[in-house]
TrEMBL record:
One of its GO terms (cellular component) is membrane. The lineage of its organism: Eukaryota, Fungi, Dikarya, Basidiomycota, Agaricomycotina. The chain crosses the membrane at residues 189-222, 228-252, 345-366. It is found in: Membrane. Keywords: Membrane, Transmembrane, Transmembrane helix. SUPFAM superfamilies: alpha/beta-Hydrolases. It is a multi-pass membrane protein. Belongs to the TMCO4 family. It holds the Pfam family DUF726. This is DUF726-domain-containing protein.
Length: 560
């Protein structure tokens, strides 16, 4: 991808009206996003069983960190917009205006230019990409105004290209001046020093102040000056350090050793690549996917091949236990009990009353098949989640947003990890997790748990459930003596998106339809062609367990 320095630099052609409107639009959307996050923290406070002083401390620390993040991004945007209302950006707090109806129309391309620059400056200064920033941009800004993340990554990875292009434009612009010869000699000397500094000097060659001064001079020739030019110059000069912080130990191929340091109680855990960006560069976001059972070891990664875009990784955990669970699940669905339940569902029997009619002998038979693999996997999921929570908190994927996706016990791993993240100081976890998508989760709908998770998730928190999942319902009844699990019911917590999948009538359906489910909830990065391939493959596998209306009538007539 070509690098154009002016595309990440503050635009120089904004009118006074543009500057005011674009800043006010961003500022007010930012204020609305901030207020919603504050409400999630308030819900956690109200539902928490922690002592009053402790939960008040969590809430206060979260508010302080949230306000600092929001104000920092508002300040960058204000700077990029040319400080339209004076030297200081307005204060962004709970009283800030959130209405945008009175603002004049604006060009989406101009807003994109402003946000490109603001995001680059934010990353350059902080050496991180907060998940809050990304969630704000992806969910609160028009789609055609979202910053060009690929351009930002390319600029950080290849600052020399950006400077070479800038050199060409600077040379072209100086040819019209009378003092062309002297100026070009200065440009050539400056660029030579800069190129050396960026490519080799950052590791110990050229002094940083000289690098910054040279780049700032180039930016001046492009019409970019002031504090913004200084931050942009620092970002280009220090791009090596920024990339190291952004992409973390995974980018340095040392994840395995870090995982080993955190795995004492779990025997099998690793992070595997599913896909990566086609140009070889890491992306500004990373996605971690977790399967809930494995028919084959390749199921660690295969269900998640429907994703494109962000770097996509899969967590391999306790393969042997997940394979044993898969065998038990497929044995269970072929039993007379499960066939009878499926037949009754097809005949539109009320599911809750059907489950209530199951006697202890039937549940005992179910338990004989599934109890040990199910409960063993559940215990291991808690342990894997504890490890993942520590890895996330230690930013093993770098200082960039992480999206988590899972089904069945993969979702339990994620919930447990987020529970651990939520127990850390809010200042450490404010911008860590972007979106979370959970499907068929064999975990409680406890509002206190979900509200704490909602606080640490900066974007979407989706609970995909199937009220007709006969397998999960029976197993919940047989092993936990409860029906109130997230995989069967909506979670009644503000900010949790509950999506009902009526066509999922058995727990084993989640794996083969995970791409379709993600597409239906609007998950970012889903590729339609890959989803269709997954659905065709699943249809072939599911033939053995499908049931016609006539077969259902016959099985129902026989009874249990």
């Amino acid at each position: 991808m070509a690098v154009a320095l002016e595309k990440i630099a503050p635009p120089t052609d904004l009118t006074d009206s543009d500057q005011h409107t674009l800043f006010q639009y961003t500022f007010r959307r930012l204020a609305a996003y901030r207020n919603a996050a504050e409400l999630y923290a308030l819900a956690e406070y109200q539902l928490s069983a922690l002592p009053e002083d402790k939960k008040q401390q969590v809430k206060d620390e979260f508010s302080t960190s949230l306000n600092k993040w929001a104000q920092d991004f508002a300040n960058k945007t204000y700077m990029v917009c040319g400080q339209p209302d004076g030297d200081e950006s307005p204060e962004l707090d709970e009283f800030a205006d959130t209405s945008i109806g009175d603002l004049p129309p604006f060009s989406p391309q101009r807003l994109a230019a402003v946000l490109n620059a603001a995001l680059f400056l934010s990353i350059a200064e902080s050496k991180q990409y907060s998940a809050r920033t990304r969630s704000f941009l992806f969910n609160n800004i028009p789609k055609d105004s979202i910053p060009d993340e690929e351009l930002i990554v390319t600029t950080l990875k290849h600052p020399d290209q950006a400077l070479q292009e800038a050199q060409g434009k600077a040379e072209a612009s100086t040819k019209a001046h009378a003092s062309r010869g002297k100026t070009l000699r200065m440009v050539g000397m400056g660029l030579g020093a800069v190129a050396g500094g960026v490519l080799v000097g950052v590791t110990g060659g050229l002094a940083a102040p000289l690098i910054g001064a040279s780049i700032t001079t180039i930016l001046g020739w492009l019409g970019i000056g002031g504090t913004a030019a200084g931050l942009l110059a620092s970002g280009l000069a220090g791009s090596s350090a920024i990339c190291g912080a952004l992409f973390g130990v995974y980018g340095a191929k040392s994840t395995a050793s870090m995982v080993e340091r955190h795995t004492r109680e779990i025997r099998d855990l690793a992070i595997l690549p599913v896909s990566s960006n086609t140009n070889g560069d890491e992306t500004l976001g990373v996605r971690l996917c977790i399967s809930g059972w494995l028919s084959l070891e390749s199921d660690v990664t295969e269900p998640w091949s429907v994703f494109g875009g962000d770097d996509t990784l899969a967590l391999r955990w306790e393969v042997k236990a997940l394979e044993e669970l898969s065998d038990a699940l497929y044995t269970l669905i072929k039993t007379n009990t499960m066939k009878y339940l499926r037949a009754e569902i097809i005949r539109h029997t009320v599911f809750a009353s059907l489950l209530a009619s199951l006697g202890p002998i039937v549940l005992l038979k179910v338990g004989e098949i599934i109890d040990n693999p199910w409960m063993n996997t559940k215990a291991l999921a808690f342990k894997a989640g504890a490890v993942l929570g520590e890895l996330l908190s230690n930013r093993v994927f770098g200082n960039r947003p992480v999206t988590l996706v899972g089904y069945s016990f993969g979702s339990v791993v994620i919930l447990e990890a987020l529970k651990r993240v939520a127990s850390r100081p809010p200042s450490e976890t404010l911008g860590l997790i972007q979106d979370v998508y959970l499907f068929g989760t064999p975990a409680s709908t406890d509002p206190a748990l979900w509200s704490s998770v909602r606080r640490v998730v900066t974007g979407r928190l989706v609970n995909g459930y199937a009220s007709q999942d006969n397998v999960l319902a029976v197993l919940s009844r047989a092993t936990d003596v409860t029906w109130k699990v997230a995989g069967l019911h909506p979670v009644d917590v503000q900010g949790v998106e509950n999506v009902h999948f009526e066509d999922i009538d058995g727990h084993t359906k989640w794996k083969g339809k995970i791409g379709e489910c993600l597409r239906r909830v609007g998950a970012v990065g889903i590729e339609d062609e890959k989803v269709e391939v997954q659905l065709r493959n699943t249809a072939t596998i599911d033939k053995d367990v499908e049931m016609t209306a006539e077969e259902a009538q016959e099985i129902s007539a026989k009874g249990l």
